[in-house]
Please model this.
Amino acid sequence: MLGSFDYVRARTAAEASTALAERPDAAVLAGGTDLLVDARSGVRCPSLLVDIKGIGELGELVCGDDGVSIGAAVPLNRVIEHATVRGQLPGLAAAAESIATYQLRNRATLVGNICNASPAADMAPILLALGAEVIAVGGSGERAIPIAEFFIGVKRNTLDAGEIATRVAIRISSKVRTVALKQQRIRGHDLAVVNVAGAYLPEADRLTLAIGSCAPTPTLLDPMMVGSASPGDLAAEALDQAGGAICPIDDVRSSAAYRSAVLPVLLRRAIEGLLSGKGGA
Model:
């Protein structure tokens, strides 16, 4: 059962920030697909829910010449179904589509997925590979947090007390290629055993990869220059990089050994998809 709590429907991001700052155990309510489950099971017991769904700017998904901006209240299905996202960033759409069921994706949000900061967050690797920024508003005003600095531990992000993530900003080249791959135990709705995402800029010949569910936080690898290297060589280089940053574990979804066996396969598939131009999912 849900415990007792107060409820505020914020009208602006600043109002939401103020409410959060006044109650250290307050929680933001957008989609609620993680929060309400945690509250019902006793994992989290917020004394105040700050509902941000009525803040107009947080419901905006904007695609322009300078990139894509996805508000904190934008549900995943809007991201998936947006023509520009599907056309220019198929890896982002694929990652979003791998989350939960259609019905849940009508409520769950991209920003909520990363703020939850699960090591297996499905949106984290593709956003890392794309060099996204989290735009946050707090008592000191607005700031942009590079996504590579956003995750600081299991279920922990770098937002300060009273700060609210208002949107994710992605600066993109029209020629960027993206891919997102996910290995899970079963077909359908399941968390990732391993997830891998990548972005490739042909004009720069630069490849960036990121890995999820193999460390306490999603892991961004250093960019690699492709040159004449084969997908197998690049996958080996990526795996060598990852070796010092990841530490697969045994848990209810997988063994560490299985994760370690799956990771090089997904890395190679992602690289092959990016270099061939047939990536996306």
In short: The radius of gyration is 19 Å. DSSP finds ten helices and 15 strands in the chain.
